[in-house]
Amino acid sequence: MSATADANPEVYRAPVGTHDVLPPESAAWQAAVARFADRARRFGYGLVVTPVFEHREVFQRVGASTDVVRKEMYEFTDKGGRALALRPEGTAPVVRAFVQHRPAVPWKVWYLAPHFRYERPQKGRYRQHWQLGAEVLGVDDPEADVEVIALAHGFYRDLGLGRVRLLVNSMGDAESRPAYLAALRAYLLDHAPALGDEFRERVEQNPLRVLDAKTPAWQAVLDGAPRLDQHLGPAARDHFAAVQAGLTALGIGFECAPRLVRGFDYYTSTTFEFVSDALDAAQNAIGGGGRYDRLAEDMGGPPTPSIGFGIGIERVLIALAAEGADAGSAAALPALDAFVVDAAGDGVATVVVGELREAGLAADRAYGGRSVKAQWKLADRSGARYAVMLGARAAERGVVGIKDLRAPDAEQSEVPRAELVAWLRRATAITPGPPTTDRPPGAIT
Ligand code: HAM
Question: What is the C-alpha separation between 404 and 386, in angstroms, rounded?
């Protein structure tokens, strides 16, 4: 029996909770990444690339009581006996790299990376997802908090997302947190007998982990819990007030969310989340982050107050689709400028396509000596703006044919071969430089 006949079709599918991103849908993915990269550059952030796996201890620093560490890590031992794990979140590796290399502060970096969590897969919740993130290490100024929030906020706006809300909170600092934790633990344990073992166990491990739980039976008790914002010491209160004032000065709308604690133990002080009202409540977080002022020290580095965020690309794209075509098209890449139809068959098509591409135009062609009719079909299907028709007789006169593929009734016209690049440049209005950041109508403010 041949190897092909043996093949198990289930194995040749992307594993549960993962997915392929193919063209043309990948254009929205690519546009989102390009816009983020451009925005990060304008804000003064450099790209950081860390390994997809780290020593397991690096990720254990995000918190023994977190779901990510308790249940969701993809852990393995390599052939050399090292205990490793695939990246479940992006902050710990960046801090590990900082502690290892000790770059000058402020260290402002951004990343695009796959993340792995063994979750129950559903729409918007995957076992591999991609994050765009940014981190600023070595600054405790609330201006840094405002800057990173503005970076994320502007990204959603660039994409044309309108139904996005920003939630902000403060987790307090080393002075104010212990008293709050004690009050919260006492209150929750008082109510634990009625709410069962899981509740009690989680409270005992870390009462903050319970505060933003979605379990319906717990809500009444959680609603009455002591509030973080009423237990802030003077320094934490001033910091949080300065962050709110900065956001207001930039015209960035926000809501205070006293129960927003987020899922990692490293958070201190400012936390924030962007939620999309176009998505189901269970997966409506399209990005989130906060301060982690002690994580670098926990990894053996110097005191390094820091803040950052991660944005889930898949969720952003789902939110764009849910908001409708306008938002989606704002995230699309420009289509081909020209499709070259070769009726001459003399090799000139190769030269023309090459010339157009080198001139910065997006151009494509058919292969394999297809008939002219088949080439026109491909030109139509390609989504190109213009077809450029190369014919032997036209070549003798030094011209090429041009057809506007978006105006099916328009006649074919002729352009001197020597002027083709200039003509197409004018017609497609190429503007060199980064993608446009014009604010689309209906975008968040
Ligand atoms: P996180 O909230 O766990 O934070 O993830 C950031 C974003 O990634 C979420 O808001 C969501 O959009 C997306 N996301 C998370 N899990 C999944 C999943 N299973 N499937 C699809 N999308 C998902 C962090 O990871 C922190 N490292 C963020 C941060 C950076 N805090 C400070 N700096």
Answer: 5
Determine which residue's CA is closest to atom 15 belonging to ligand 1.
Answer: 312
Please give the tally of structural domains in the chain. Answer: 2
Name the stretches of the chain with pLDDT < 70: 1-5, 325-331, 430-445
Q: What is the pLDDT of residue 434?
A: 40
Confidence at residue 330, expressed as pLDDT on a 0 to 100 scale: 61
Out of 36, 66, 115, 137, give the residue to mutate to test ligand 1, the one with the largest number of ligand atoms within 8 Å of its CB: 115
Query: Is 319's C-beta closer than 6 angstroms to any atom of ligand 1?
Result: no
What the block records as the tokens of 323 is 């908001």
Decide if 15 contacts 127 (C-beta within 8 A). yes
| pLDDT tens figures, 119-137 | 999 999 999 999 999 999 9
Q: How far apart are CA 177 and CA 207, in angstroms?
A: 12
Is 284 within a domain? yes
* CATH number (domain holding residue 412): 3.40.50.800
Atom of ligand 1 nearest to the CA of 117: 19
Atom of ligand 1 nearest to the CA of 287: 10
SS3 state of residue 34: helix
Summarised one tens digit per residue, pLDDT across range 212-238 is 888 889 999 999 999 988 899 999 999
Domain that holds residue 399: 336-429
Of all protein residues, the one whose alpha carbon is nearest to atom 9 of ligand 1 is 287
